[in-house]
Amino acid sequence: MKLAVFDFDSTLMEGETLEFIAREYNMELPVKQITHDAMSGIIDFFESLTKRVALLKGAKEETVTEICANLPYTKGAKETISELKKMGYKVVCFSGGFETATIPAQRILEYDAQFSNILHFKNGEMTGFVGGEMMFSDSKGKMLRRLQLLLNVSEEETLTVGDGANDLSMFKYAGKRVAFCAKPILKAYANIIVNNKDLTEILNYL
Fold first, then answer.
1. 162: alpha, beta or left, given left = phi > 0 and alpha = psi -120 to 50?
2. Tens of pLDDT, residues 108-118
3. I need a surface site. Which of 16, 115, 144, 178 has the fewest CB within 10 A?
4. How far is Cα 110 from Cα 198, in angstroms, rounded to an integer?
């Protein structure tokens, strides 16, 4: 068995989930700036996540759910996952985003499992709070190590794909480290760089 781990926002999906939600509530600009700073490594991921979610307090659960179920997926995402599974990979999504987006995406893209965060809703609205498995800058690395031990998969048999600073921690434990249309901070630690927005290009390196 081999293991492939993909980031979700701006990797499997075209854009950032919170920015799609923020657009609906005229909050896209401040959310986008915080996202940029987090993915570039300027501010801590946990800090950026909690700030962005707090800005969207009051967003309707029904609206958020609908937006998350209709996100645009990156060219080649479904095909790449399918090919990796044929090659013996277990394919997993690690997202600093939210299960409201990664669970619908799992049904469409058919990855094997997802680990993400959870938006808190009360009385049908976002409370501005968030919890979950991917809250911190080192969360992806820690979860990857757990999966490797559980599945008895080595670093050499592990492929990771991401675009931003919060993907650095999982790069530490992977033999193949793909920076996909990524920020410079991640490219510096990658051994595979894909600058074209087509995930099938990854298959050329396997």
1. beta
2. 999 999 999 99
3. 115
4. 17
Mean pLDDT of 166-189: 95
Whole-model pTM?
Answer: 0.94
CB 115 within 8 A of CB 136: no
pLDDT of residue 41: 84
> Phi/psi of residue 41, each to 5°?
85, 15
Amino acid at 65: T
Residues 6+ apart with CB under 8 A from 169: 137, 138, 139, 140, 141, 142, 144
Which residues does the annotation mark as catalytic?
7, 9
Of 205, 199, 203, nearest to 14 (Cα)? Answer: 199
The b-or-e profile of 109-137 (16+ CB within 10 A means b, else e) is bebeebbbbebebeeebbbbebebbbebb
The pair of structure tokens assigned to 77 is: 């995402």
| Residue-range domain boundaries for the chain | 2-205
- Residue 202's identity, in one-letter code, is I
CA distances in angstroms from 86 to 79, 89, 132, 203, listed in the order given: 11, 7, 31, 12
Q: How far apart are CA 139 and CA 137, in angstroms?
A: 6
| Over residues 68-84, mean pLDDT | 97
Q: What is the pLDDT of residues 137-168, one digit of tens each?
A: 999 999 999 999 999 999 999 999 999 999 99
